[in-house]
Amino acid sequence: MTDELKDLKTCIVSSIVSERNHIFKYTSPLVNPSSSEAKAVFYEYDRVTSNARYHNYNVDSIPYGDIQVDKVKVPNFHEFLANKLNYHFDQDRQSYAKERILDYFRSYDEDGYFEEFLIADYEFEGEIDHEVFKSWLLFNHLFDISSQIATRIEANNFIGIQSHLKLIDDNFGFLMDGKKSFFQLKMDEDELYSWLLTEIESFKHQVEDRDLWKCVNGESEKHFQIVFGAVLGRVSELYDVDMSPEPSTGSGNVDFKFSQGNSSKVCVELKLSTSSRTLEGYTHQLQKYLSSEKTDKGIYVVIDSGNSKSSYNKLLKLIEDGKMNGKTYPDIILIDASSKPTASKLV
Predict the structure, then answer these.
(1) Looking at the 3D structure of the chain, how many domains does it have?
(2) Would you say 266 and 290 are in contact if contact means Cβ atoms under 8 Å apart?
(3) How large is the average pLDDT for residues 300-313?
(4) In this structure, what DSSP letter does residue 124 have?
């Protein structure tokens, strides 16, 4: 591990600790309203909204004649808390935190102008170092939890906030007090399903925008399974998720089953757009696997390298017809693996 990568890991961990403290500060009025931290948040809310409230008071009490003066929207306290968890000024907090980490590796010339980055993109993303990659997973997971807390606050649903805070301490506490490092997030079936959708969308991004299409374009379905398993296997191991390739379900072998214990499991079926059974793979094949596994959580992934069969077009029509009737298909992920021109040829 180079010095730059060690510094990068340190920056990521420092950002995680800082964000953890930020989350606990802005949830303190809900879980410990008499604490000094909560009182500071109450005072901050009063201070940042005072001008707007004073303006609205004047609009209500002072006649302006024919001049139309509009009131200013004043966020309520819960909106203020949710905003603090989601944003830093006008930028979302996760993007802001990543920019702060990247700033550490900016090099400037003697006149103070930006010159270059001291670390390459693939190093920054952790593509060549397991420890950096794992740190980014921690980083992203913490912001996912923060977003979930903000959503609960916006909905005035405070019951689950304590469990979210406990989840943070269970999974990030070792960064605060030197406990042995571990990363095992226990997820119920809904959480596992949401996590897996996110990871497959990340795989899609790798194929469509990061040249992974070269590894699957025009290849067989078995080859697609191997590449998919290699990418998802690494992150599954870090999240303590069991990924089983082609387990028998009683109705045949589903391509992948992801699980944590007996109660959380998701089936994933892969298909090529060139298959003559692309539509049936979703409407019949996957449904049988789900029934055999006694779960309703399944994801259907179709990769399109061109020359698709009519069955794929029928699947697209199914999705389009569903949209017209207000139905969505989050469990279908379509991946474009067609040949992409290089950046130089786009100029």
Answers:
(1) 2
(2) no
(3) 90
(4) H
For 304, phi and psi rounded to 5 degrees?
Answer: -115, 110
Question: Do 212 and 108 fall into the same domain?
Answer: no
200 and 342 in a common domain:
yes
The least confident of 90-104, 189-203, 287-301 is 189-203
Tokens of 31: 């879980």
- Domain limits for position 254: 190-346
Nearest-CA neighbor of 32 among 155, 154, 162, 156?
162
Whether residue 309 is contained in a domain is answered as: yes
Residue 187: CB partners within 8 Å, gap ≥ 6? 195, 241, 260, 264
Q: What is the pLDDT of residues 164-213, one digit of tens each?
A: 888 888 778 777 654 444 444 567 788 788 878 888 888 898 898 888 88
Of residues 78 and 293, which shows the higher confidence score?
Answer: 78
Q: Cβ distance 198 to 205 under 8 Å? A: no
Buried-exposed string 83-98: b where 16+ CB fall within 10 A, e elsewhere: ebbbeeeeeebbeebb
- Alpha helices (H) along 243-285: 278-280
| 216 in the same domain as 89 | no
- Do residues 119 and 231 share a domain? no
Please state which of the ranges 129-133, 224-228, 238-242, 300-304 shows the lowest mean pLDDT.
238-242
Q: Do 160 and 224 fall within a single domain?
A: no
Query: Is residue 38 assigned to a domain?
Result: yes
Predicted confidence at residue 60, as pLDDT, reads 79
Token pair for 274: 């060139």
Check whether residue 173 and residue 194 sit in a common domain: no
Q: Assess if residue 185 is contained within a domain.
A: no
The alpha-helical segments, DSSP class H, found in the chain are 3-31, 36-61, 77-86, 93-103, 121-124, 130-154, 161-177, 189-209, 213-216, 221-238, 278-280, 286-293, 310-324, 343-346
